[in-house]
Design goal:
Strands 1-2 form a two-stranded antiparallel ribbon. It has ten helices and two strands; from the N terminus they run ααααβαααβααα. By secondary structure, the chain is an all-alpha fold. Helix content is 69%, strand content 2%.
């Protein structure tokens, strides 16, 4: 639709430009012709009174007053031609400025499109890089804990939605605009309240963990849901060993999450050590062989 309107406007400009160009040419060529015609007519009608003796100074001095009409016609025609020429030139300049403006708009649109494409690619690559980093750290942590507890058939029930985590860590980034390019997240971006988490862990010290139901621990993994960390608690209940061992496996996954978040720079080293120590202590309360220090 816009393109059709632009074509119509361009055609109108071209027609107007052609029209005034023709008028300018007509006026330009008509000026000397009309002047000569008026000069000849006056000479013809006043031939009896005209003196053609060029030796007389009076004939030269009175020339402008004698042929005032043809000279006036010439002056008027020159003025009209100049006005037509100036108007034609203004239309020409206006048309050129419109063309330049359109070219600038096209260039700006192309630049914006290229910029959007570049931002989109950077956004996808940055999000992919974080996803790969999370997968790598998670795989290493799970592999390490699985090797330690292989004899007890440990299976992690941990899942991290890297895209949800990315939105939480880099809310300023979008496919339209990239602001942060680092993968090491500034600690100012606290996504979990360490003090609240510590208090929840310490509150378990007075409980008989062998009798604790996993559902009652929902407040723990609820803290992680907002940024994509999910503890699939139903998987813990499918363990071969019973008698509270699934609670210990939950703490192992808890331990893994703390390590992954620490690797991403989201938890201070001192807080990491404090949380690790408490998690290990709780796990050892269930079975001293589950998580060795």
């Amino acid at each position: 639709m816009e393109r059709k309107e632009s074509e119509v406007i361009s055609q109108d400009y071209h027609k107007e430009l052609t029209l005034w160009k023709s008028r300018f040419k007509i006026s330009f060529y008509a000026t000397p012709i009309i002047t000569i015609v008026f000069f000849l007519l006056q000479a013809l009608f006043t031939s009896e009174q005209l003196s053609t003796d060029f030796k007389l100074i009076e004939n030269w001095v009175g020339f402008s007053s004698t042929f005032k009409l043809p000279i006036g016609v010439f002056t008027s025609m020159v003025a009209i031609t100049s006005l037509i020429g100036m108007y034609f030139r203004s239309i020409q300049v206006s048309h050129q400025l419109n063309k330049i403006e359109k070219q600038l708009d096209i260039s700006q649109q192309q630049f914006n499109l290229a910029n959007k494409k570049e931002n989109f690619v950077l956004f996808i690559e940055h999000r992919k890089a974080l996803s790969e980093l999370v997968k790598l750290e998670l795989k290493e942590q799970i592999s390490y804990q699985s090797n330690i507890f292989q004899s007890r058939d440990f299976k992690s029930a941990l899942c991290i939605d890297s895209q949800k985590l990315y939105k939480k860590l880099f809310p300023e980034n979008s496919p339209e605009e990239m602001v942060c390019f680092d993968l090491w997240v500034p600690k100012s971006k606290e996504i979990i309240n360490i003090e609240v988490l510590s208090e929840k862990l310490y509150s378990l010290s007075n409980l008989d963990l062998l009798k604790v139901n996993l559902i009652s621990l929902y407040s723990f993994y609820e803290m992680f849901l907002d940024f994509g960390v999910v503890f699939q608690i139903n998987s813990y209940g499918s363990c071969q060993n019973k008698g509270g061992i699934e609670i210990a496996y939950f703490f192992i996954d808890f331990y893994i999450v703390i390590n992954v978040l620490s690797k991403l720079g989201l938890i201070e080293e001192t807080d990491t050590q404090r949380l690790r120590g408490k998690i290990i202590s709780l796990a050892l309360d269930i079975n001293d062989s589950l998580i060795p220090e």
